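Predict fold of Probable oxidoreductase; 298 aa.
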Amino acid sequence: MTFTARTTATEILDGVDLTGRRIIVTGGATGLGAETARVLADAGADVTVAVRHPEAARTPFRTAALDLSDLDSVAAFVRGWTGPLDALIANAGVMAIPERQVNPQGWEMQLATNYLGHFALALGLHDNLAASGAGRLVVVSSGAHRDAPFDFDDPQFERRPYDRWQAYGQSKTADVLLAVGAARRWAADGITANALNPGWIMTGLQRHVDDDTMKAMGAMDDNGVIIEQPYSKTLSEGAATSVLLAGSPLVAGVTGKYFEDNAIAGPDQAAAHALDPATADRLWAYASESVTASPARR
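Predicted 3D structure, encoded as tokens:
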């Protein structure tokens, strides 16, 4: 079967048996994460969804508490996980927070949640991924990465004016660089790492985007009705690339890539600044300083 932008997550795993595979999906109680978890579970996987408030999550899957903006919470989750891990899907995220916020380590909140928390989680679960023999790290990024290289001079917007879209784009560049950095370091452990753009899907991710902005983007009419875009995807179409990278045998051994529409992205889809190995190494070192300095790691 040839996969396209309209291939659904269910179609991706048609005939694939994931029985016995242990998979974590962050933010897996709603939206894309929930659809990703559902399809993987339908294929036989043992799925755990990691969410901020598991007691309030309405999901049929096993839940565990995880606040990605809090490195103590990340460390607690890691301590609670035992045994091999076949795939970690770094799906949870926030977008376009209107005002600058920071986490306890002083990281801007979108960068802290979308990138640093997932970096610490992947680092903490490295041995579990390695123990599976063919662990997979799947990082959900965005096409927004193309507009925002990582700014090492002022990554936390301490001096430059805070721009919620630049902050979001930078966090998604960092997500791609996470996959590139992990691929460079963990290949010998049998771990693959890839990033992806799920496409445009209306989910709770847009909760910080006001109506005026949606109208200016052409995504909402004057009556507040969402305008379906030609490139819009359903939840199942949006979850497809995550499911491909987490569970399909067709991408076994593929690592360090950025995917769109169920295929390795072309040069017009993947920005060079997000795939640069030297930048990935520099960001890895920068993030490692915050993770190792956290009280949870002392």
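The longest helix spans residues 164-186.
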